[in-house]
Amino acid sequence: MDVNMTVNKGEMSDGKRSPVVYIQRTETFSACHRLHSSALDADENRRIFGKCNNPNGHGHNYRLEVTLRGPVDASTGMVMNLVDLKNHMEGAVLSVLDHKNIDKDVPYFKDTVSTAENIAIFIWDRLEELIPDGLLYEVKLHETDKNVAIYRGEKE
């Protein structure tokens, strides 16, 4: 018996549901920034952001984890080709942020405070334009070993 096992919106042609798998790619980049809000005065900026408000900025070695969630394609055995994900991350994220002054070199942050939270949102928005609808599940940005921002595209 010949059964076509192609995936169509989470269901295989034989009527069975397709397994859903999470895949993840990790990359690293180095960048500097300064936590500073033009909506606050100098004293408030120093009080809220502390040493991260240093006028000369400071740097991080970021670790970025991008997770996709989707059905496994029966013909390829993949949710998405990880080489494609790697290329999207390099083109849309690393080439823009790696070895850059985030506040000065990335126009998005001209009027947006470059917190880990906002950088994670920026990364999501860039990748969402390139990754097929519904596959992007999570952007996890490690600013340090102890400080992590996770964004899943949720809005309130």
TrEMBL record:
Its EC number is 4.2.3.12. It comes from the Eukaryota. GO terms for cellular component: mitochondrion. The keyword Cell division does not apply. It is an enzyme of class 4 (lyase). The keyword Zinc applies. One of its GO terms (biological process) is tetrahydrobiopterin biosynthetic process. This is 6-pyruvoyltetrahydropterin synthase. Its cofactor is Zn(2+). Belongs to the PTPS family. One of its GO terms (molecular function) is metal ion binding. Pathway: Cofactor biosynthesis; tetrahydrobiopterin biosynthesis; tetrahydrobiopterin from 7,8-dihydroneopterin triphosphate: step 1/3. It comes from Dreissena polymorpha. Keywords: Lyase, Metal-binding, Tetrahydrobiopterin biosynthesis, Zinc.
